[in-house]
Every structure is written in C-alpha cells, then in structure tokens.
Fold these 3 entries.
Entry 1:
Amino acid sequence: MHPWIEKQRHLIDFTLAALARRKTRNAGLLVAYTLIVFVLASLMLFANALRTEAAYVLAASPEVILQRMVAGRHDLIPPGYIERIGRLRGVQKIEGRLWGYYYDPVVNANYTFMARPADEVADGRIMVGATLARERGLAPGNTISFRSYSGRLFTFDVAAVLSPDSELLSADLVLLSERDFRAFFEYPAGHWTDVALAVVNPLEVRNVAAKLAAALPDSRPILREEVLRTYESVFDWREGIVLTVLAGAILAFTILAWEKASGLSADERREIGILKAIGWETGDVIRMKLWEGLLVSLTAFLLGFVAAWVHVFHFGAAVFAPVLKGWAILYPRFTLVPAVDGLQVATLFFFTVVPYTAAVLVPIWRAATTDPDAVMRA
Amino acid sequence: MRPSTVVFALLGPLAAATVMVLALSGPSTAAHQPRLDANRALVARLGLTDLALFTEARYTRHPSQADLHSALQDHPGAFDHFPSGSLLPPPALVRRHASLDRKAASPD
C-alpha cells in the first residue's frame, strides 16, 4: 500500500481509538448530528418532490385564465364578453369554462363541480375524483344525489371514477355535463365562470395579457407562470415554517457541536502534549483531528441523508407530512416522485460537514503549536 | 481487524447508497413518468389550475385563482386563515363531522 495511505489509515485507527475512549459523549454527538441532518434532509426531499410534481403537471394548465372582477371579487362572465375579446394575435383558442363549488353536508366537505362537453359526460351522469368516491363509498354504476343551492334534489349516475393516480389533482372533482351544471347551480344562460385562452407562443403570453387588461379593464388575467409561482411559494413557505419551528433545535445543536469541536478538554490537551512529546509533528496532530471531524460529520451526513430518503420515499414522510401537506376532509392519497436536487444535497453537505470539520482546526492548531510541556501542565 | 477497516466497511455502503440515490434520481423519476404524463394530460384536458390539497375554501382549493381582495389573499400564496395553512391539526369537531351549517340527512 502507498505509504501516504498507510499513514492516514494509522491516523484514522488512532483517531477511532481516541473517540472510543469517550464513547458516550461522541455517540451522543453523532446521534444528535444525524438527527439534525435527517430532519433537514427529509424536509428538503419532501418539499422538492412536491414542488417537482406540481411544476410538472401544472405546466399544462391554460396559458391565460381570464376572470371578470366586480367590486374586487371574481364574478361571472356575462354574455357577449368573450366576443368583446375578439381576435387576438397568437391566441389559438378562447373557451368559456363552467366550474364552481358545492358543499356536501354529508361529509362536511367541498367539491369542485366542473362542466364537460356532452361527448365526455352525458346528461344525468357524473365522473368523480377517487378521494370523493372513497369518502362517499361510490363506484361506477352507483347513484348519488346532491341537494342544489336552490333546494332541489338532483340524482346522478356515477359513470366513472377518475384514476387514483390523479388524486393530487382530482380529489374533489365532480365532472358533469354543461346542461346539468347550469341546471344544478341555476346558472344564468350564456354566463361562464371564467375564460381560458390558449396562446401558442410562450413569449406572446404577456402581450396577450396586457391586451386583455387594456381591452377589458374589469378583467383579471392569470398567467400560467403565476400559477406555477404560487405553488413554488406555497411549498417554500411550508418548508420555511417547519424550519422556523426547528430553528431552536438546530441552533442548540450548532452550539453543542461548536462547543465540542472548538473547545478542548483537559484530557485531549494532555493527549496532544504526550503525542508531541513522543515525537508527533504538529501536522500529524492536526491531520488526526481533521480525520476526527470528518469521520463524525461524514457519518452523520450519510446516515441522516439515507435515513431521510427512506423516510420520505418509502414511509411517505410520516414525521413531517401533516405540516408540509396540510390537511382537508377530502385529502388525496398520492405517491411522491423521488426527485432529488443535487445542488440542494451539495448545499446540505457543505453546511453540515464543512463547518464541523473546520471548527476542530483552530483549537487543535493552538494546542499543537504550543510547547508539549506547557500543554501537559495546563 | 483494524478500526479503520470497520469504519470504511460501514461508511462505504452508506456513501454508495447516497451516490446511488443521486444517480438513480433521474431513472426512478422516469418510472413515475407515465403517471406524471397522465396527470399532465388531465390538467391539459380539464384546464386545471391547482392541486386538490386543501378543499375547505375557494382560496385554499384554488390558491392561484383566488380573488385579489379576499381576506388575507393579497397575492397568490399569501397566508390563509384556514388550519391547512398553519401547524394546527384539524379540530376533532370537524373530524367527527359535527353539525356546521345546513347539516342535513343524506339525500341518497
């Protein structure tokens, strides 16, 4: 074996023997360190997985949604409004949408009703999200009644249950025909909930929105990029909330680790004195301590990260899910995409391994450069 | 056995697992691709704009479509005042399906 490697191995052997002499203290530090990495890595992986999923699927949402505002609130699109938009360069399709909310007192949950063309959902039939179907015990072929806001009872046949794979998007969806939708909500004829515009060229989207805002001052265009940004900020905020709650614990650990790494006990001081007295060079003592810092922090990082990955992607992040996902009566079941951001992992590595390893250097350099006799007597 | 050998035998697999997690992130995400593509197609077909995570109010169900001037909704993603936006678990009262408003017998 190369003499340099052999020397490092001897140094590691010696370091490990020294660590083993203070077993309880070092094991405690390693456990606390691993837990901190585990918590941070779990948060990071979970939030990143949700962000990745939201960004990917919502990238297909309409380029522009046009709402009409009345007294600062979302209002129905009246007849003739879509015609007033007229022809806009770059707009491929303008489509009025019908959707709304229905509160179901049976399960105390809100559903999202959405009208679909007759060729998709026939009159008298509905398609429902898998979460809703589970909560109300529905299967294709069943019948369900909803009492409309006007007090009339409407009965629908369940034509299909949407794929459970899409629960994250369709948990509370009820798709019904346009005629049923208008009858159920007593929607005024010719009115729409909002308007979706398909814009071919992504560079044109802002121009289209500006033209819409100029032509229809009471409208509010919502761009796809705003939708994506909303979800980015929602999960960033949730991640931030958990980090804030954990800030105290992280700070406490930082103080503990700093204290451990930067302060030398009398035993350690004497040990260094003896090593120097028997002929160890200052460089060797520093290298030994560097190995100690690196072994502790690297072990904590690797253990914490791998445990976090298993926790998030195999156990559904059971520890943090309630905070990060939120809650609702109709809560979708979904699997997370095991997307790992290399840059985030590198950042976590840098902020967990490097500071600890560096923190051991200063006191050891001071002790190692002092006269062995003075060090041993101190 | 030398202590360094034991430590490397423990750290080696852990390091390999970490590298594997990073390296396989792409392929394992690819395994979810059909599901993601199907969901993206559903979003495109239905014109969906939001995730169905919190269904209790319109500005939590569709945060990106919320009114600019509704309570605490000055911008998309602003703080909401339902428990889904806080650290509180759902109150037991809600979980038990207690009477809120318009509590009625099941119409079906």
Entry 2:
Amino acid sequence: MRVVCVPGALALLPAYASIDDPVAELRRAVEEAVAWLVEPGAPVAVYCTPQSLRLARRLVGNAGGQVHLAEGPPAAVLVIANGSAKQTEKAPGHFDDRAEAFDAALGQALRAGDSAALAAIDESLARELWADVDAFRSLGSDIDLTGADIEVDYDAAPYGVQYWVVRWLCAR
Amino acid sequence: MTLKLGRQEFGDDATLVMAIVNRTPDSFYDKGATWAEDKAFDRVEQVVEEGAEIVDIGGIKAAPGEFIDEEEEKRRVVSFVARVRAAYPDLVISVDTWRAPVGRAVCEAGADLINDAWGGADPALVDAAAEFDAAIVCTHTGGVTPRTRPFRIEYDDVVAAAIADTTAYAERAVAAGVDRRSVVIDPAHDFGKNTFHSLELTRRLDEMVATGWPVLVSLSNKDFVGEALDLPVGERLTGTLAATAVSALHGARIYRVHEVVETRQVVDMVSTILGHRPPQRAIRGLA
C-alpha cells in the first residue's frame, strides 16, 4: 500500500494561482508524490477535512485517479494535513514558542512511520497552534506504517506554516 | 481577435503600453527633451526597460506651430526608426504621422505600425501600411485639418461620430489590403473635441470596444485632464491615471503614454480586478 501526505495549502488550488507561484517548490513535490501514489483510473482513499476535499479531488484527478471515500482496504491513501501555523512572527497565527517543538515531534513521527505517535497527537495543543492534524491522527490509528520505506520530499515552513510531503511504501 | 503589429502578435487579453518618443523640439509635455537623437534613443532604452511593448516615434508636434514639411519630417524620424530597429529587433515601432510618403519611408526603415493621429487626412496612408504589412491606428478627429485646434465643434453624439468614423476608416484600411488583425481604432481624445467630448468618450469607451476593433487610448497629460482638474501640464499624472483606469475597465487594449511604469501598474491592477490577469504573487491567507 502507498501512502502520501501533503499540506492543505489553499495556494495549491488553481483558483488561487498567481503569475509568480509562491509555493512552486512545494507544488512540485506535491505533484510528484501524488503521481507516485495514483494508479491511473484507480480509487484513492483520502483522509482530510471537508475544506481540503477540493484539493484532494484536484490533486488525485490531475494524476488520473479518483477520490474514493467508501470503506474497504485501499491500495493508495492520500493524507492532507500539516503542522502548526505559528512558527514565526509573520505566520498566519503569529508566533507561538510551542510551535517549534510540536512540529519537530510531529515531523519525527512522520519520518519514523510511528503510527502510535501520530494517533496520539495532542488535539487541543494542535488546535491552539492552528495545526491541521486530524488526518494524521486517523492515519496513525488506521494504518500500520511500521517497516515502511519512507521518503521525505518536502519539510519546510516557508510562510510560518509547517508543510511536509512524505511517501510511505508500506510493507503490506 | 489576435492583434498583429508588424513583427509581433498579441493575444486577446494582452494590454499594451505604447511609450511616446518625440523627435520634436516643441511638443507640449517634454518641450524638446528628446529632440536630440541621442536623447531620443536614451528615452527608447528607458521605456523598453520599463516594460513598454511599443514606442511611438513622432517628428511633428500635434498642436499648431512651425510648418514642418515632408522632407524635414523624414529627416527627423526615418533614420531614427532604422537605428531603433537595429538595436531592438523585436520591439514594436510605431510612427506618429499622417503623411503617406513618410509612412512608406518609416516602414521601409523597420516600423511596424503607423499611428495616424489625424483621422486619414492623407487617404494614401492606408496603402503605405498595406504595402509593408504594417498596422494602422484609425483615429477620429471630426474631419479637422492636421495641427489645428478645435473651435466651437459640436456633435449630436460624439461617441456615435467616433465609432462611425473610426470603423469606416478601419474598413477602408482593410479594403486597401491591411490585415484585419492589424487595425486599431482610437477616439483621439482632444483632437477635434472639447473637454466635454473627451470626457464623454472616456465614460462611454465600452461602446467603442463593443465594435470588436482593438481600441487605443491616448490620454496622457492632455488638456481634458488639465481642464477637468484645473491643473497645468506637469501636474496631470493622477488625472491621467484615473482616465486610464476607466479606459482599462472598459476594455481598451493600447495605452499611448509618457509615463510607462505608472500606466502599466494601473492597467495591470484593473486587469487583475477584472479577473483577466492573476495577481503577481498571492499567499496571504492561502499558506
């Protein structure tokens, strides 16, 4: 099974396109990872908030797949989630000195395929830090990432919002 | 429709800035600042750097003044066009002239566009454009003689008159062999018009745009701006830019101007508000 996580940045949507793409590098990483995830014509299970469903449909559709919300064991899972939005003074949520440690721990869990740590993300702290982690929590509880081959394609907070693009090729 | 200006083609939603380059000692705004050929060439260099797609080179000021014959007009513009063409192979070069022999000579030297500010006073000008596959600007002057001021001219409907005359001129150009994609119309603010006429043309410019011909506006620092605000030449930029914004909102395609940077910003801002152009770089609230 293949799993990919990307952030829910609205700037990735065509409706919000600029002449000079402010998220060019992120967009490249997202598109490459989703292309790796999607088998043309095949369904992709999506873990995300209702707001991010539009982005999920756009990304999966562009890669030739289709978003599939039904139950059942999927072959491909797209997770739309991201870390805090409070890393800097200019960040959308302004600076919070707890953001760095929160994002560091979350990044560590993603890199290690630590499903238990993901399932246990502190929801109330995440809310305070404007972090969109519900889909990470679901990923942690539903899918065993132990032993997966893991590729971190993007790990940065260019606008004070912590983004990751990660691919997991799971053992089963 | 695609706009073809000599060597260059532009898409439907492209807005173009045409920078005025005077090879005159006496034009109203710059008062001879680029009369010397090297100064005029520096001006070309500057406006190209500022992003102008077109330069409009003129050898005779529009207002009454010293008589400039055909030979002197050619001396002022023909070799200069050749020099600009050599330095800027892709730049759209326009020449502001009403005389067919001058039009022919500048096209031979590399001009792409003949800007006839005087409404077809020389009927053979269209033939010169056709001969060289050049573009032409068809203006409305109400039939006045070149280089005269309006005096007690009235119209039943100035916009209807401008549309009738410019589109008739445009069809005449096409009939003479000018490419249909290379014809531009211009209401010619202040030419054969008082301030009220120019204001009404600005207010109702959408009616000219609706003809389907690409519309050029030449508003820069003109007297209708000056009289609307009671401001002398040199203090009309803000008023010019307001008229520019209204013209952009109505769909004008080409802006003939002294100030390139300010015009480009206004036109781009209006295009962006209209949704014809994306923001340059938007991330606020979207990260």
Entry 3:
Amino acid sequence: MENNEILTPQCIVDGDDNYDLVYEKTNVMTDTRLHYCPGCGHSTAHKILGEVIQELGIQKDVIGVAPVGCSVFAYEYLHIDWQEAAHGRATAAATGIKRCLPDKYVFTYQGDGDLAAIGTAETIHCINRGENIMIIFINNGVYGMTSGQMAPTSLEGMKTTTSPYGRNVHTMGYPLKVSELIAPLPGAFYVTRQTVHTPNAVRKAKKAIMNGFKYQKLGKGLSFIEIVSNCPSNWRMTPLQSNDFIDTDMLKYYPPGDIKVPSKEDLINL
Amino acid sequence: MELKEDIRLMKGNEAMAEAAIQAGMDAYFGYPITPQSEVLEYLTREVPNRTGIALQAESEVAAINMVYGAAGAGARVWTSSSSPGWSLMQEGVSYIAAAELPCLLVNVNRGGPGLGTIQPSQGDYFQATKGGGHGDYHLLVLAPNSVQEMADFVFLGFELAEKYRTPVMMLSDGAIGQMMEKVTFHKREIVKSAKPWATTGKTEDRERNIITTLFIQPEKMEIVNIHLNAKYEEIKKNEVRYEEIETKDAEYLLVAYGLSARISHKVVILAREKGIKLGLLRPITLWPYPSDVLFKLADQVKGMMTVELNAGQMVEDVRLAVNGKVKVGHYGRMGGIIPSPEEVEENLEKFIKTL
C-alpha cells in the first residue's frame, strides 16, 4: 500500500452516498509518516493532541515544545509552531515562551528520561512557579531513542540494556512516581495519570489534554498530564503483549486516574 | 525641566541593566552569581514599574534555556552570569547559536578554573572566542573597557544580534562590572527588527515555524554548518571593531582588551615619558578579531606584547594574526590580581630586551 493511500481513506467512499464519514484524520496532523514503532503509544498521544487542538480551534495560538528522546520529532507531526528544546530543558524553554506570549497556549511533550532524569530540576521549578502551561509526560519506563536503557521510571526488576539483570532498586534507585511527587506543589493546578492502550483510555486521555489547554486561560497554574505508555520494541514484546504489560505491571505501580483536580470554584470562570 | 542628557554614576552591572530596559528588553532570565548579581537585583526592582520581564531561574542551565524559548518566540531577551555560571550555560548557548536565535549573553569574568575567585579575570577568553559549547559556531564577542561601554554595548549587542540573527556575547569582568563611573544614556529610537520566523502561533497566512537544532541527516547538517559559516564570514567582514592608541609612530605595541586595556593605556603614557615609543591596540570585538590591523602593524613595530588577566590566551590570536612577522610576548597576572601600570611597564622593558 502506498503512503498516500494510507493517508486518504476517504477514497473508498468517493462517489458513494451510502457511506457516512464516521472518522477523519485531524487536519492538525501533518501528512508526514510517523517514525514511531508499530504499536507505540506516542502515535496515539500525538493524534489526540492534534484532535484537541482542532476541536478547541486554537491552532493559531498554540506553541509546542518538543523534547529529546523518541518524541524529538514531535514537531514533524502537528501543524503548529514548535520549538525543539535541549534534553530536559523543555519546561525552561516553555517558560521563556509563555512569559513572553502569555495569551498563547504553550505545552511541552516529554518522555521519562527527558522530564524525570536530566530535566528534573527544570520540571519541578517550572511546576513550582505555576507556569500556565501544560506538560504532557509520556512514561514508558525506558529510554526509547537510545534503544532501551533504564529510565528513572523503569519498574523494579525491569530488564533494560543498562539493567540487564533487572532493576535493582537498592543500587539503581526506585522508579520515580513523578505525578505523586509534584501534585502537592501549589503551582500544580491539575495532575492526572492516563493511558492510551485501550479505546476508552484514549477518550479519557483526550479529555485530560483538553482540560490542560482550557485551564491555561484561568492563569492558576500548570496542568500535568502523565500518560503511561508502552514501548514494544524496547520491552521486547509485541504491541499486544506490551498493552497487557501496561495493565499487569505498569498500572500496578503507576495507578491511573486524577491525582489533583481543580475545585468547582477554581473553574468558575471557565 | 527635561535634561538633554541623562548622566548617572553607576556600577557597570547596573548600567548594563538600565541600558537593557532603555533598549526595550522584553525579558531577562538569570541566576545570582558574584560579581554580577546586581543585574538581576536591578531588573527585579525596576522592571515591575517599567517594562519587560525579569525572572530568577533555578539555575543558569534553566536561565539560558528560558532565553532560548523567549528568543525563539521573538522576544528581545538577554541573560548575564559569571564564569562558573557561564560554563553551565554553554549547552544552551550552542543550541541558541545553532537555532540562530538573536539574544545578548553577558559573562562578567571572574578568576578560575573551578569555583575560583570572585575577583576580576580574563581567563574565559578561550571559552568566549573559541566556542565554549559543542559544535562549529561562533559568538560575536564585544569587550567593554568602561561602565559607559557596558551600557553602550547592550544597545549595540541587541542590534547586531537581530541584524545577523545570532547570539551576541559581552565579555566583561568583575572590575568593570563592579566599579562605579559616569555613564551617559542618550535618547535613542529603539527599532526592533521583524521576526517572521518566530514561534508566535501558526496563523493561516504562513507555514508553521519550527525552531530546532536537530539535523540528523549529515547532508542537511552540513548545509546548516555552511550557512552558519557564511554568516560568520559576513560578520568577520563587517563587524571587526578596535581602538588604536598612539600607534602612528609606535615601535612597540601592547595588545589588550577590557580592563587590561585600561591599565595598558596608562602604560603607554608611562613608557612614552621614558622615551619608549609604545602604542596600544585594543580589540573591541574579540570575535571577529582585528587580525588585519595587527598584521599591518607587525611591519611597523619591533615587537608586540599582550597584557591579559590570564596565563596567556589572546596572545595566541595575536601570534596567528602576525604570522611570525614579529615576536609576540605576554604579560599576565591571574587569580584575580590586577597588575599596576608600573609593573606592566617594567615587564614591557624586560620583553623589549629580548628582541
């Protein structure tokens, strides 16, 4: 199948009025072929991000900040203005953007190595300042782009290329629960942990991202959307196995759901 | 009554901060470090009643990346630090150079290596002029020798940064940053250049803007390298700045910048009182370097000596410039020690005896 055929599914219904268009690719996504591995949650997260931007009609007012890691090329896939930041520094760059363009919607899209290892200081202080941005944090417990090294979020016992006998928490530290860590900070307005491995989960994650954009208008702090995702390639699993692993292992340690939600009074002006 | 001229007595660091406000800065991101903490103090005091943003970052690493974000968003933005903090910024500086983001970056040089001393030094010359961060890039480096120039070079720095879409650095030192002098602020018309490349939100009338430094295919990376170097060649052609003092009949030449040039100016007077025909060449841009004028002066003088507050760094550029035509010596003090003009003059005479 040619690339252009994949991208234009409408061709099968052309000229046939018996079909209803029930699904369409968001026009906020570009036609660039995604570089992610088959079954990877990044693609889904990108798609719902694009859909939310389209549905809110804020395309001209959004600036995204891409990280270093698997999603370093995030800027290839969404039709918005982007900056690609140095490793771990996305939240600092986003601070610079948002402070100078306070009326725009600014978000970062970061993986666990970028956000929770090398960028920990920038992450915590950005949240603590209550910058009115959204952080989308993709947690798949592994360094993807450099092909499978241990991440700060790798589970206990998890085998990676730098923990070949499994993560020993006594010598390698414990998997970091970033959402729980940052939720108590007054600058964190909305903290939630989502997944994109089932259709229902995708809908919920999309709603969370939509909230993350909407809340920026309130000027009350930062929205932190963690998405526990998969990495079939570096977990050495099929996509389906990796989705099962999310349920059987990842979500046991990283329970999904809202961790900090705004009060009704907080949302009165929304 | 409106004064024709705004004349003040200020520290170099304060003059620089005031100049930035007058130059229409949109934002400053910084982290406290001696001997330049007055900048952040001045701005956080002044900005709320005037214009712009002044934000204390959690580290120099964060500060420089905030500059990256703000510059990418089209803001007139700057930061300042001192040697250990400036080292921390180098990652971000490399990214800023690669992404061609106009901004002003200031290093108020103190003694090192390591945590070093808070006293003035010129030990960061190599770092400022030869790279500092990774990869093939240059900063346009301005070296002020007075409080007045610390103010003036803020205006000039922003102007050059936007003209060439490149980061401009001011390399000062702890003495010029801390000392108080008369400084005049002239009324200026502030012109900010259009930045159609900035990430301000993708409107329908243009393609999306992407600020990135990732060019993973070697062919594309090399195109970027060639583009950057073409720009650097243009800067070399147009922006070399220097000052000549008593060079017309000079038989010997001192080469010194910044604080060392202030001392060396006095050395010229002392030497001439003794009948030594001494001149001074003061590079104002450290990159691009005034190599051509030194090459010409090498035909006229019997020897050159750099005066630096370091172990001998700029002397390498002078030797490259004269290409063996004359002997080039170096006299320097380190550790934050500032030599007296008499001490330098004495060592000049020793150097002359070796010629």
